[in-house]
Amino acid sequence: MSHYCDLAPGHPLHGPYHDQEYGFPVSDDDTLFERLVLEINQAGLSWLTVLKKRDAFHEAFAGFAVARVASFGEPDRDRLLVDAGIIRNRRKVDAAIHNAGVVQALQADYGSFRAWLEHHHPRPHADWLTLFRRTFRFTGPEIVGEFLMSTGYLPGAHRDDCPVQARVLAAGPPWARTGGNPDADPNS
Questions:
Q1: Half-sphere exposure of 108 (CA within 13 A, CB side)
Q2: Its GO biological process terms (predicted)?
C-alpha cells in the first residue's frame, strides 16, 4: 500500500498540500472548520477531487468563516446544491452548515474550536470518533482520522523518513507532546 508521502511529492495539487499543510498544527478556527468540511466532502471520493475543487469550496462557503456559514439559510443551501464547482451532496452541504453552528457553540463554551480539541486531547482514535459522532454530523472513522491527522492531533500524516516529517515535528503538533501515544498524559 502506498503512503501519501510516496504519491504527493511533485504533484501540482497533492504536493503543496502534503509539503505545507498536512499534519502541521492548525490554530485558526476557520482553517480547522475548512479541514473538517473538506474531509466530509472527500467521503466516497478521492482527495484529488476535493483539492481540485478547494478554491470553489472556499468561495462557496464564504472563506470557511464559521460565523458566516453558521448563518446560512435555505437560499444558501439551494445555492450550494446547484454550484457545480463543489460537491453537490445534500447530506454533506447540510452537515457543513450544521457543523458551523456546532463550532460556534464550542467557541462559546471553550473559547475556540481549537480549545475544544485541546481540551479532549490526547485520546485514541476510537474515543475521538465517539466524541465527533456525538458532536458533529457526517463524521465517520475515515473523516475523523484524516481530520485529526491533517491538523496534528493524531500521528501518521507522514512517514518518519519523509523530509516533511521533521518540519511537522518542529512545528509542535499536539500528538508529539504525548510522544505519539494518545493514551499518554501530556502533563507528565
A1: 8
A2: base-excision repair
